[in-house]
Amino acid sequence: MPSLKFESTPHTFNWEIIHALPLVENGGKNITVGEVLKEALPHRFAWYKSDTSGKHEPPPFQECKLSDSTWNMEIVMPGRTIQLDHHHNASKWLLESIIKLDQLVGDQPFAPVFYYYSSDWVRDDPAHESHSFFVVNNERIVEEQFKLSFSRFDVSEFDVLKQVWDFEPIWANDRAEIESVTRWWYRKFYEDTRVGQFITLSELPLHYYLPQHRLNTAALQWAQKLSKQQRLTNALLGIACVALFLLLAA
Q: How far is residue 26's CA from residue 181's CA, in Å, rounded to a whole number?
């Protein structure tokens, strides 16, 4: 069973943790995920530079390509290529996922919000687990199947997502409004996306959503259970009536 538990609430990247995750370049140089992101995606992660007029200009958009093998990973950029060795696979998978997510977002602001919907693990090696999310950015679902995959041995340093609302609301209705937005996005995922529709047809648990066919199945199961209980009650009443008749006739 998975060792991590995610709630049905919006999550966001925990950049403080992510930037410090370790990587190793081919040749043995130790670097971090944050250092690679600033170099590979300067338009997202490099510091803004000021020109002579004092205005802040973001770094230009830069495309990078990923080349991944069983053990190594390459990030091809206009200036150079970063080659990562076989160490810290969990960090590499996360780095790759962030770069791919940036490509999906394109030139829009990068503020992804993650909604958890399922977990999985390797049957003959339960230490390896995977957690699936759909991702909302700029008021649209940009990724239906964002996965965090890693070995359980990495979990202690892998708290890479945090809840968006990790504080007590000030106003009495704030929590209800937050939950309504969450329910709305889960419903949109299950109804409007291919992956979400597949999940509703499976036996996986759903979050804030019950499709009609599952409702019909649940109602049928409840009716069958009630029918069995009713038959048992009628049988017991019949037995009681026979016993009473025999007692009176004695």
A: 45
Domain that holds residue 225: 211-250
Same domain? For 246 and 204 the reply is no
Cα separation, 176 vs 246, whole angstroms: 62
Q: Tell me the two tokens of residue 232.
A: 């048992």
Encoding tokens for residue 118?
């399922």
Quick one: pLDDT band at residue 47, thresholds 50, 70, 90? low
The encoded tokens of residue 185 equal 């996005």
- What is the distance between the alpha carbons of residues 93 and 87, in angstroms, rounded to a whole number? 11
pTM, rounded to two decimals: 0.77
- pLDDT tens for residues 152-189? 556 555 688 999 887 777 888 888 888 899 999 999 99
Query: Both 181 and 243 in a single domain?
Result: no
Q: Find residue 25's DSSP bridge partners.
A: 84
Q: Give the number of domains in the chain.
A: 2
